[in-house]
Batch of 2 targets.
Target 1
Amino acid sequence: MTFSIKTIIRACAAPRHRLSCHAELWAEVTRQLERRGEERHEAGVFLLGYATPKHRRVVDTVYYDELDPDAYSSGVCILHAPAFAKLWAICRERKLTVVADVHTHKGAANQSASDKANPMVARDGHVAIIVPNFAATPVPMEKLGIYEYRGGHTWRDCSPRTVRGYFYSGIWG
């Protein structure tokens, strides 16, 4: 019999959320975004993991500048087609899927017109997270902008100010 005590506890006792990420991994994501953005431009990352129709769990990352060294050269995050080919190859190799993308903004974590018009993954249910203030620490969870893609360039605002309990970052993530 193969099973994991952690998996069983997570299923029975952990909070129910649409998206989860272990606290240590989330802390590393925000540290890396702050470092890579140099406190002066946007930076971004794809969160990789496992997805079911009801839950997405983050277990790994791929930063935009690892896929495209020029991703931040304009001051905002821009990825070209070859970067996505690399991303999909990494997903196949690691047997994971993109469960969300995260990028920083200078000020508040509001979705820009460009963010709305250009989803990083234009697939229904994809989650985009915006971290305010170029991810300067500390990054309060309640200040994140969290948006779920609904197709046709429409989004559902799932930010903590709008939807409680959508994103969980803790020991059961």
Target 2
Amino acid sequence: MKTVIISQELDELGGPEEFTSDLTDLVDADELEHLQDDGLPIQGTIVSAGMLLVGKLARTKDYDRSKLPRSVDYAFHGEEAMREIVQSMLKNTSHYATAGETGKVIESYFDGDEPNIKAVVVIEAIE
């Protein structure tokens, strides 16, 4: 068994990163299929090296909530233009599995309180 612990860090504005799977403008959608809404992997997920293991995002210094695109903005201005706006304000700080963090997810949970939350993922080696 391997226990992977991912700490919640501070973003460029001094606030805590957010554990989430809502990274659609920052990564390809197929990279998110195995994540729960809170960014933790679903129990039973088979993890390979380089795979997004825990989803996190952080605000950049350019973050302005009032300028985040709404669904109507995507329809009017196009997906690529809206993606650029999001990428200027939010940063993917997710944890990607290393070669030593592969196998089957046995459990995943959070430990601690903000701003010191830790994501814990227990992985069993597959032989």
